[in-house]
Amino acid sequence: MKKLIALLSFLLAFPALALDGLEILKKVDRNLEPESSESLRKLINIEPNGQKKEFVLYTVRKGRDQVVGLFLAPESDKGRATLRQGDNMWLYIPEVGKPMRITSMQSVTGGVFNNADILRIDYTAEYGVEALADDKEQHLLTLKAKTGEVAYDKLRMWVDKKALLPVTIECYAASGMLIKTLHFKDIKDFGGGIKRPATVETDSPLFKGFKSVMIYGQIKKREFPDEVFTLNYLPRVGDLRK
Q1: What pLDDT, in 10s, does the model give residues 11-33?
Q2: Could you tell me which of 108, 111, 105 has the C-alpha nearest to residue 209?
Q3: pLDDT digits (tens, 9 = 90+) for 125-184
Q4: How far apart are CA 82 and CA 121, in angstroms?
């Protein structure tokens, strides 16, 4: 009887725990980026010998799972555009003139950041909260992918309790292997109520000695029509900056 009572107590407590974790995750999403916004980022890939390659990316997003990106630099990538709608992703290359399917685990920049990192949608769109733990300064969320199409099967996310922003995220495969770690640094006030880490660094045991850095130069709220997030609009993404 005591075991039954204990089990019932656990089952009753778990939904409340998950709900608390979900609310934290929702706030993390909105604190990182407004639901409809545009941003400018620099992505830097650093090789073990110190050699660097830099990309400049203009990104717009709408809702929880629609993202479009446009490469402004280097010259060899200028004009390339990407579209993400949920789990589906495409790359448009002007010389080809036709969008090509890409996957979340590929990387359009060739660094440690994959396409899911570069075209990030809301965490709540891809993950459910499996567990929540606390210490004095941070929440620890254990997140489980909702489908097999998600880049990482599980995330361990440490969240600053006061700012409700991620500090560190460990990304795992279904096998339990650590794929990469994301480090969020340099909290900056971008204006318009947006205050978030300006720098995201990643390293991976699968790419020893390699490192990639994402630096946000600008984020601001902006509304976009639905047509922006379609394959037909990809050749015209640059018009949004005029």
Answers
A1: 444 444 444 999 999 999 999 99
A2: 111
A3: 999 999 999 988 999 999 999 999 999 999 999 999 999 999 999 999 999 999 999 999
A4: 13
The CATH fold assigned to 21-241 is outer membrane lipoprotein receptor (LolB), chain A (2.50.20)
* Cα–Cα dist 92/108, whole Å: 11
Q: Output Rg (C-alpha) for the chain, integer angstroms.
A: 19
pLDDT the model gives residue 1: 57
Round to whole Å and give the CA distance between 12 and 80: 50
3-state secondary structure 111-158: CCCCHHHHCCCCHHHHEEEEEEEECCCEEEEEEEECCCCCCCCEEEEE
Note the pTM of the prediction, 2 decimals: 0.89
Q: In whole angstroms, what is the distance from residue 216 CA to residue 223 CA?
A: 19
| Token output for 172 | 């795992």
Chain segment 41-81, per-residue pLDDT in tens: 999 999 999 999 999 999 999 999 999 999 999 999 999 99
